[in-house]
């Protein structure tokens, strides 16, 4: 899968250490602009996969069918900005409509970043059904009403706004007769600014960090001392200049540099991270100033470059912090101290993404520290995604991100510490005394809190967020059994995705919306489906998937649907709950069961929204409470 490979390359490169070097293969300047490696304006420089064009002193990007001017390049984060197409005279249509807007070749290592706010103008009515924000208060209306730049669009009633970078918008911003006929884009737009202070329109594009250069023979590989022309073990029948040990490929500068990569990570130790931490604290700086050894000098440069790159990453993370809640940046030293250098006794859990440790900050705050597994690209990606998502939300039923650390070899997130384990652990009696605490009213409250958190994501977060991996092991409980939804690694902002097809499976078996298999789309109603399964777990204390049940009943949702058809819903309820329960309480259990089945409706449009689910649980709680009062 091309995307996966790209990601792999990207992440592998990210984890690789930076080095010092002077660039030898970069292309010459184009007019006033430098052309950083790997961008290539000619056959003898840069990396040929990264072709751009130098046209009479200005840089251009050729898309599938069209050409756009490159207005700026930021090599440290592998991004450049192109100027969107002009509007045709006197109509609200962009000149590139004949090419269906910006269409990148998805086989090339360029994609459209999520820093772009796209305004779609002169849209057809069908767009009203899209997940884009086409309301009369949306940013595009504000722009049309106040910019004067697109006066022709005032007469076009429908326009919509979205953030790019979703799976369907990473290679195109599509305009066409049957959709929207014009677009413009702004990079890192602060929507709170008045329109006259918005930046110039621009569309930001990112490039994937490059692999080692291709070669035909050894003569193509620098002076022959630093690299050797060998067949690429990753396949493709090509040969590349692989760095000779102990040198290693530095994708940013595009050279072989001294390898300072090591098996560091959570639990590991290297002098590099130590040095970085030292440098940050100022202590290391003194050390380096004092040093005259060339080795140390080189190392210093290397660390400096690493720091610069990390600073950029940090900037990105802080830019993502749009919800107004400050995510703190922790140093590697902070994190190591808090977790006693990732001591095994502090390990709270491990999953596909990596590991979670308990930590104690210097001010005594208990925290949970999650780090992506070293070399696990999916994990790294999920952790970075989680930062983006969590920086935008704040609700008492959602786990809180306190900050992150990008200083060690893999991204690390720091959350408030939730003391009492997961809902799954409690339901399965894995927590000492766990299930004993679980009265019916506790369970209802947990259901309500979690539902409220999800409803907030769907209807109060802007843009809406779909969690995409709702399950009982992602619901944390604190000492007072307040529920908090966690693990936003798979979640997505509700993007444009008109033509969204995501082919790699998401979510967890037993919780996954069956409609997903039909159209490969996950929506807010997919979260509703998964939450329905959680409700059934709360009601029955059974696992979502349990191979100890009869073959037909392995899946809890299917099992419960059968029980309801046979009018035996109460037979499936956790016996511990039924013990001593009043008739009225039994009724509320049944009611929750039916609500759960409503969430599991095959057709999405028949499922309630998360907000309706929350209200329904509230209603059930009130009935249950009324009973308490009677007693
Ligand atoms: C190059 O720089 C000169 C002088 O700084 C400026 O006048 C000119 O517009 C620049 N050209 C481009 C293509 O940016
Ligand atoms: C919007 O697009 C339609 C279809 O291309 C075009 O006929 C119309 O003139 C456009 N509206 C405005 C206000 O320019
Ligand atoms: C883009 O160009 C290709 C040929 O290079 C052509 O087949 C295709 O129809 C063009 N697409 C558009 C939208 O113009
Ligand atoms: C897209 O890029 C690949 C790789 O360079 C190339 O082989 C292919 O022809 C390009 N596709 C189009 C439609 O230009
Ligand atoms: C659309 O955007 C406006 C302005 O940013 C916001 O107030 C509104 O809630 C958004 N609507 C939806 C449905 O997201
Ligand atoms: C833009 O102007 C239209 C018509 O004057 C008005 O209905 C709409 O509310 C305005 N929208 C914004 C965001 O200012
Ligand atoms: C775009 O490319 C970057 C850098 O390789 C990558 O991290 C990101 O996941 C890509 N985005 C999409 C939507 O493919
Ligand atoms: C080879 O590597 C050494 C050490 O990193 C460096 O000084 C030298 O410039 C490199 N030579 C080439 C041609 O890249």
UniProtKB/TrEMBL annotation:
A GO cellular component term found in this entry reads: plasma membrane
Q: Do you know which PROSITE patterns this protein is assigned to? A: PROTEIN_KINASE_ATP, PROTEIN_KINASE_DOM, PROTEIN_KINASE_ST
One Pfam annotation reads GUB_WAK_bind
Residues noted as binding ATP in the record, renumbered to the chain: 370
**Principal location:** membrane
InterPro entries named in the record: Kinase-like_dom_sf (IPR011009), Prot_kinase_dom (IPR000719), Protein_kinase_ATP_BS (IPR017441), Ser-Thr/Tyr_kinase_cat_dom (IPR001245), Ser/Thr_kinase_AS (IPR008271), WAK_GUB (IPR025287)
Membrane association type: Single-pass membrane protein
Residues passing through the membrane, by range: 275-297
Q: Which UniProt keywords apply?
A: ATP-binding, Glycoprotein, Kinase, Membrane, Nucleotide-binding, Receptor, Serine/threonine-protein kinase, Signal, Transferase, Transmembrane, Transmembrane helix
Residue stretches making up the Protein kinase domain: 342-620
Signal peptide span per the entry? 1-23
Q: Name one GO molecular function term.
A: ATP binding
- Where does this one sit in the cell? Membrane
In terms of PANTHER family, this protein maps to:
LEAF RUST 10 DISEASE-RESISTANCE LOCUS RECEPTOR-LIKE PROTEIN KINASE-LIKE 1.4 (PTHR46008), PROTEIN KINASE DOMAIN-CONTAINING PROTEIN (PTHR46008:SF25)
Q: What is this protein called?
A: Wall-associated receptor kinase-like 20
């Amino acid at each position: 899968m091309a995307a996966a490979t790209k990601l792999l390359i990207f992440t592998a490169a990210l984890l690789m250490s930076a080095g010092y070097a002077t660039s030898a293969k970069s292309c010459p300047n184009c007019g006033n602009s430098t052309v950083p490696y790997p961008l290539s304006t000619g056959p003898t420089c840069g990396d040929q996969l990264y072709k751009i064009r130098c046209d009479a002193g200005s840089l251009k990007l050729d898309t599938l069918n069209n050409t756009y001017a490159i207005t700026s390049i930021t090599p440290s984060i592998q991004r450049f900005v192109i100027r969107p197409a002009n509007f045709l005279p006197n109509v609200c249509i962009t000149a590139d409509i004949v090419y269906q807007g910006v269409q990148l070749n998805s086989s090339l290592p360029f994609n459209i970043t999520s820093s772009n706010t796209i305004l779609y103008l002169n849209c057809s009515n069908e767009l009203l059904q899209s997940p884009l924000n086409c309301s009369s208060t949306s940013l595009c209306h504000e722009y049309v009403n106040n910019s004067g730049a697109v006066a022709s669009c005032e007469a076009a009633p429908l326009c919509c706004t979205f953030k790019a970078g979703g799976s369907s918008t990473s290679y195109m911003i599509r305009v066409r007769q049957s959709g929207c006929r014009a677009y413009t884009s702004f990079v890192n737009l602060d929507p709170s600014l008045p329109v006259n202070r918005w930046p110039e329109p621009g569309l930001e594009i990112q490039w994937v960090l490059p692999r080692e250069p291709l070669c035909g023979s050894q003569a193509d590989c620098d002076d022959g001392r630093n690299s050797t022309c060998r067949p690429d073990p990753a396949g493709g029948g090509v040969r590349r200049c692989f760095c000779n040990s102990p040198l290693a490929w530095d994708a940013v500068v595009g050279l072989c540099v001294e390898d300072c990569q090591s098996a560091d990570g959570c639990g590991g130790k290297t002098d590099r991270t130590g040095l970085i931490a030292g440098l940050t604290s100022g202590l290391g700086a003194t050390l380096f100033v004092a040093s005259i050894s060339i080795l140390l000098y080189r190392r210093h440069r290397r660390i400096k470059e690493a720091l610069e790159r990390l600073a950029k990453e940090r900037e990105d993370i802080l830019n993502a912090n749009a919800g107004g809640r400050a995510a703190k940046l922790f140093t590697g030293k902070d994190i190591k101290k808090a977790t006693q250098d990732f001591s095994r006794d502090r390990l709270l859990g491990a999953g596909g993404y990596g590991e979670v440790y308990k930590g104690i900050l210097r001010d005594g705050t208990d925290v949970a520290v999650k780090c992506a597994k070293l070399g696990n690209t999916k994990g790294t990606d999920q952790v970075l995604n989680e930062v983006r998502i969590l920086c935008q939300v704040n609700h008492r039923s959602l786990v809180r991100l306190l900050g992150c650390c990008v200083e060690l070899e893999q991204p690390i997130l720091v959350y408030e510490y939730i003391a009492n384990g997961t809902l799954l652990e409690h339901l399965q009696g894995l927590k000492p005394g766990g299930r004993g605490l679980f009265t019916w009213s506790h369970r209802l409250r947990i259901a309500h809190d979690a539902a409220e958190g999800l409803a907030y994501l769907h209807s109060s977060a802007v843009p809406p967020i779909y969690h995409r991996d709702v399950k009982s092991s992602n619901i944390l409980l604190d000492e007072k059994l307040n529920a908090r939804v966690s693990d936003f690694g798979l979640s997505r902002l509700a993007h444009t995705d008109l033509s969204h097809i995501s082919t790699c499976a998401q979510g967890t078996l037993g919780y996954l919306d069956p409609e997903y298999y039909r159209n490969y789309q996950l929506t807010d109603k997919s979260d509703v489906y998964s939450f329905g399964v959680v409700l059934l777990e709360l009601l029955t204390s059974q696992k979502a998937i349990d191979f100890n049940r009869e073959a037909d009943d392995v899946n809890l949702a299917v099992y419960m649907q059968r029980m309801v058809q046979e009018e035996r819903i109460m037979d499936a309820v956790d016996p511990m709950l039924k013990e001593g329960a009043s008739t009225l309480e039994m009724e509320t259990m049944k009611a929750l069961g039916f609500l759960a089945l409503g969430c599991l409706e095959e057709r999405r449009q028949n499922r309630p929204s998360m907000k309706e689910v929350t209200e329904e649980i509230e209603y059930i709680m009130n009935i249950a409470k009324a009973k308490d009062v009677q007693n």
